[in-house]
Amino acid sequence: MSESPERISMAGRLRNNFLTGLIICAPLAITVWLTFTFIDWADSWVTPYLPQRYNPQYYFDVTIPGTGLLIAVLFITIVGFLGKNLIGRSIVNFGESILQRMPLIRSVYKSIKQIFETVLREQSTSFKKCGLIEFPSPGMWALVFIAGDAQGEIAAKLNENGEEMVAVFMPPTPVPTAGFLMFVPKSKIVMLDMTPEEGAKLLISGGLIAPDYNPDGAVVPALPAPRKKAAKARRKGGEETTVIPPAET
Asked: Compositional bias of type Basic residues: which residue ranges (predicted)?
């Protein structure tokens, strides 16, 4: 005699449907909201400086989202194109020479430029790997992003014992917008195969969303979709039996 499946109450079904809908709608709504918020922010910076005759809103009398963002992208691209030739490079060097003569502004400009050059460098390996370090005490492990090898004075001071030091960034959970910059011996870091995107998901979710891991590198086949009826009951000789469908190959 087969056991009858446990019935779910109407309230339970409504709750499950609501949670399923929330999982579907919430990420979509948040993504749309963040996208339009960023577009509005870019438009608010660029659109007020456009001459009226170049503003589409002047002709259509309708606000077109993304106009300022598109103009900003085109402007930055053109500046980058001009900055690669001799004339554009000369203009950039002239502007930088003026900034270098300003006591406070030159420090801010130099720091910001170094950050962008490091992050946006095509051959840079910064924050492309994840690892684990023992923190805050032995036996307790924290997820970190590998920034790169220690350089300059820090490398000279810390590498005196022959141990190669690595700069790592350890963000907090669940909002990884700040954190600690630490220099750790390379031998003390457990390197991970997960990508920085997967590591960020793990941090933001508080450990709930863990990336899949297959150490052998083999492709794990997807499980077949569950059948609507796993067993079909039928009566034979007055007895109720259960027929189990054969496994799919």
From this structure: 226-235
Question: With 0-12 CB in 10 A as exposed, 13-18 as middle and 19+ as buried, what is 236?
Answer: exposed
Question: What are residue 133's phi and psi, to 5 degrees?
Answer: -130, 155
162-168-169 Cα angle (round to 5): 160
Mean pLDDT for all residues in the chain: 79
Rounded CA gap, 117 and 109, in Å? Answer: 12
Task: For residue range 170-219, list pLDDT tens digits in order.
Answer: 988 887 778 899 999 999 999 999 998 899 889 888 888 888 887 765 44
Secondary structure of 187-216 as H, E, C letters:
HHCEECCCCHHHHHHHHHCCCCCCCCCCCC
Count Cβ atoms below 10 Å from residue 203 Cβ, excluding itself. 21
- The angle, 0 to 180 degrees and rounded to 10, between the axes of the packed helices 103-120 and 86-99 is 140
- Name which of 80-84, 133-137, 231-235 the model is least confident about: 231-235
The Cα–Cα gap between 176 and 206 comes to 11
Q: Tokens for 197?
A: 């995107």
Q: What is the mean pLDDT of residues 30-38?
A: 90
What pTM was computed for the model? 0.51
Separation of alpha carbons 166 and 183, rounded Å: 5
Angle at 219 between CA 216 and CA 223, to 5 degrees: 125
- CB-neighbour burial class of residue 186 (10 A; exposed 0-12, middle 13-18, buried 19+): middle
Cα 229 to Cα 83: distance, rounded to the nearest angstrom: 66
The pLDDT of residue 224 is above 50: no
